[in-house]
Amino acid sequence: MPSLTPAECLAVIPARDEVATVAEVVRGVRKSLGCRVLVVDDASTDGTAAAARAAGADTLMLPIGLGAWGACQAGIRYAARNGFAGVISLDADGQHQPELLPLLFEEHARGGANVVIGTCIERLSLPKRIAWQYLRLLTGLPLRDFTSGLRLYDCRAVEVLAAPEASLLDFQDVGVLMLLAGKGMRIVETPTLMQPRQEGHSRVFASWAVVARYMFHTTILCISRLDPGLRSTKVPARGAQS
Question: Which residues lie below 8 Å from residue 221, measured CB to CB, with a gap of 6+?
Fold first, then answer.
């Protein structure tokens, strides 16, 4: 399988009310990878789209909020329709360091995985570590970080995620990973560094009530999608530990 190059890929940045950080992220991606950047504005109420365009990104403005995964999928579909060989996704809040994005391409070149996830285990709190252990047992996926939005998808993964089946997923993490694994995609992780969120807070982990809702929905999703074949699938994860 030929290695992806940044020039062949589209950087997709889902963003909702991230005017304070999105321009810096766009400039960093363009400097680090030199690829086209698409910011998917998830019905922001601030100047996110204008700031992204001023920094050199293309923008796709959604009329209603679709959430992180809905916005990311919109960008993936844009990439599929416009002939990009792959997609690299990252957050607009400044957590992901653009200068480290080449690490994902280096990992892809080493093993030719369909999906490379950039993970930073040091950022995980004890409750998240416990939750991820539970999800590893439930899904059979030996991954260390289920919610990292820093990912590199090749053309096969893009084709799967651009399909209508992927539109039914509420979150970009466990559901997407299970769908990809069920389609035979090879998923690996590579260590990277991340910064604390510069502005605002996580919408998935905003409160214990939201966390409980997330875990409940994720559990139901896992049970509904899990089959014996997926349970026995070994998804290689570089440096993965239980």
Answer: 169, 170, 174, 175, 178
Helix axes of 208-225 and 174-182: crossing angle, nearest 10 degrees: 10
Other CB atoms within 10 Å distance of the CB of residue 237: 20
Q: Is residue 212 part of a domain?
A: yes
**How confident is the model over 62-115, as pLDDT tens digits?**
999 998 899 999 999 999 999 999 999 999 999 999 999 999 999 999 988 999
CATH number at residue 146: 3.90.550.10
For the chain, residues with pLDDT lower than 70 are: 1, 122-125, 127, 168-172, 196-214, 217-218, 221-242
The DSSP output letter for 123 is: G
pLDDT at site 206: 52
Q: Are strands 86-89 and 151-153 parallel, antiparallel or unpaired?
A: antiparallel
Residue 17 included in any domain: yes
Number of domains in the chain: 1
pTM of the model: 0.83
Number of H helices, E strands in the chain: 9, 7
- Tell me which DSSP letter residue 96 carries: B
* 100 within 8 A of 28, measured Cβ to Cβ: no
